[in-house]
Amino acid sequence: MIQLIIAENKPHHLVHFLTELAQQFQAYYQKENIIDENDLARTEQKILLVKGTKTVLKIGLKLGGISAPNKM
Question: Please, what sign has the CA dihedral across residues 23, 51, 4, 65?
């Protein structure tokens, strides 16, 4: 994504990407139980997905010069 933005000189692609990611994650989060005490391996996978999404959003917002709250 970053290479595309640089190559085409179109920073709005970053905002569209982050918006789409946030929307898809929100839909996933609403339908999935992240913590399942009966399946700890699956819970760990889902927590890694949450953390990964957080990292991508945080870095993307920083690259775009967009501030975000530390906590919601």
Answer: positive
pLDDT at 57 > cutoff 80: yes
Residue 71 counted as domain residue: no
Domain that holds residue 8: 2-63
d(C-alpha 62, C-alpha 17), whole Å: 14
Q: What is the pTM of this model?
A: 0.85
13, with CB counted inside 10 A (0-12, 13-18, 19+), is: middle
Domain count, the chain: 1
Side chain identity, residue 69 = P
Amino acid at 45: Q
Q: Establish if 69 belongs to a structural domain.
A: no
